[in-house]
Sequence to fold (187 residues):
Amino acid sequence: LEPHIDALTMEIHHSKHHQTYITNYTHLLQDTGLTQKYSPLELLTHLDEVPAEKKQGVINNLWGHINHSFFWEILTPQSSRSPWDGLVSAIDASFGGFDSFKEQFTQKALTVFGSGWAWLVLDKQGKLALRQTMWQNTPLSDGEKPVIGIDVWEHAYYLKHQNKRAEYIKSFWEVINWEQAEKNFIS
Ligand code: MN3
Fold:
């Protein structure tokens, strides 16, 4: 993703941060049989089976795993830099054009207070909407489907951009995998 997102940041983000989420939730669930019984996404809807004292830890780390798995897919070095097919007209209808969408999404991402994510989702009515989530909370738990999302935890940009989140968001637009976004939109 160079020069937009630097290799060292991505390496640490993928092999350390994401790995830690997987290690943690797997460890928390090791004697429950739940990781054998359910896929990570299925686990999302069976959290009632998680022992109470482990639930928040599982939520933080399982959702961290799910969000990051989604995030890697939505990034590509060969970005078309604008949406495809059906997503183009849906974005036009919901946000008044791609430039206006870009501006509104950027504002969402900029104004996440502390650690979290900004998302373009399909809401329960199947309409496009913008969301912010804190920590590793995922729109999936509200029954909404992510189309694109940006991780704005400082670990996603601090090495290269320090406190300048706006620079990182600007770079994000250069590496969005719109082909994958279209798949998320129509699936
Ligand atoms: Mn992250």
Q: What stands out?
A: The pocket of manganese (III) ion is lined by residues 13, 17, 68, 151, 153, 155-156 (CB under 6 Å).
